[in-house]
Amino acid sequence: MNTIPAQEIKRRGIAAVDDAIGKGDVHVIRNNQPQYVVVSEERYQALIAAEDEAHYGRVKAALGEVKAGRIKNFKTAGELLKAIESGAEG
User: Fold this and answer.
1) Distant-in-sequence, close-in-space partners of 11: CB < 8 Å, separation ≥ 6
2) CB contact set of 54 (below 8 Å; sequence gap of 6+)
3) Are strands 26-30 and 3-5 parallel, antiparallel or unpaired?
4) CB of 2 within 8 A of CB of 20?
5) CA–CA dist 34, 27 (Å, integer)
6) Which residues lie below 8 Å from residue 34, measured CB to CB, with a gap of 6+?
7) pLDDT of 61-86, one tens digit each?
8) DSSP string of 39-84?
9) Measured in Å, how far apart are the chain's first and last C-alpha atoms?
10) Are 12 and 18 in contact (CB under 8 A)?
């Protein structure tokens, strides 16, 4: 794990992060625990793109379930809760 103490950032400023980020994501340690993660802009954009792709995949799968008729609609939240409690939610 690529780490840097928060005190080092306080002492040296962003230069401390600049030195560490070349080795990968930087975990900032505060009170002997990882508290923050600093990532490069390139890594951040890749994470956002991966998250978006996963989201679209889940939506596409859900739409496939709707089109296949495997989705059951409930008129009220109470009906849904009853179905869940009885084990008949599908």
Assistant:
1) none
2) none
3) parallel
4) yes
5) 6
6) 1, 3, 27, 28
7) 999 999 998 888 899 999 999 989 99
8) --HHHHHHHHHHHHHHHHHHHHHHHHHHHTT-----SSHHHHHHHH
9) 43
10) no
- Residue type at 84? I
Q: What whole-number distance in Å separates Cα of residue 71 and Cα of residue 17?
A: 49
What is the H or E stretch that residue 87 is in?
Answer: none
Exposed, middle or buried, 39 (CB in 10 Å: 0-12/13-18/19+)? middle
Q: What is the pTM of this model?
A: 0.68
Retrieve residue 14's tokens.
């962003």
Q: How many residues does the chain have?
A: 90
Cα-Cα-Cα-Cα dihedral of 22, 28, 29, 33, to 10°? -120
